Amino acid sequence: MLNPGLRSSLLTAAATLVTGTMFLMWLGEQITERGIGNGISMIILSSILSGLPAAIGGTLGAREQRRHEPRRMPFLLGLLVLGVTACGRVRGARSGASR
After folding, report:
1. In Å, what is the CA distance from 35 to each residue of 14, 28, 39?
2. Rounded to the nearest 10 degrees, what angle do helices 39-65 and 72-98 cross at?
3. Where are the alpha helices (DSSP H) in 1-99?
4. How many contiguous H segments (helices) and E segments (strands) does the chain have?
5. pLDDT for the residue numbered 21
6. Between 32 and which of 25, 39, 41, 91 could a Cys-Cys bridge form, CB atoms 3.0 to 4.6 Å apart?
7. In this predicted model, what pLDDT tens digit does every residue of 1-58 receive, in sequence order?
8. How much is the pLDDT for 56?
9. Are 38 and 32 in contact (CB under 8 A)?
10. What is the distance between the alpha carbons of residues 76 and 59, in angstroms, rounded to a whole number?
11. pLDDT of residue 65
12. CA triplet 65, 49, 37: central angle to 5 degrees?
């Protein structure tokens, strides 16, 4: 059996997650209804973009610590090229489908 303190902590955590999720869904619907764009997608995109500077900084910091690994930089550049190519292909396919 769970102790009473742990049970209330789990209940509080579950209630907070559910309430936060409901708020974000409501906010996304409001954005969509006002015609600004696809609200949920914009919220997800803003979350991803907010973590991007820290991820880039962490990658560059790791590179500074591992100068003796020359294979890492070509891998990262290849990954960047792959990502840009994938985005370009998706955009081209979407614009081709809308014509």
Report:
1. 32, 11, 9
2. 160
3. 4-33, 39-65, 72-98
4. 3, 0
5. 93
6. 39
7. 557 777 788 899 999 999 999 999 999 999 899 888 888 888 888 888 898 888 888 8
8. 82
9. yes
10. 9
11. 67
12. 170
Q: Please say whether the beta carbons of 28 and 39 come within 8 A.
A: yes
Report whether 44 contacts 51 (CB < 8 A): no
pTM over 0.70: no
Q: Say which amino acid occupies 34.
A: R
Question: From residue 49, how far is each of 32, 43, 79, 87 by CA, in Å?
Answer: 20, 10, 18, 16
One-letter amino acid for residue 47 of the chain: S
Q: Are 6 and 13 in contact (CB under 8 A)?
A: no
Which position has the token pair 């985005």?
87
Is 7 exposed, middle or buried, given 0-12, 13-18 or 19+ CB atoms closer than 10 A? exposed
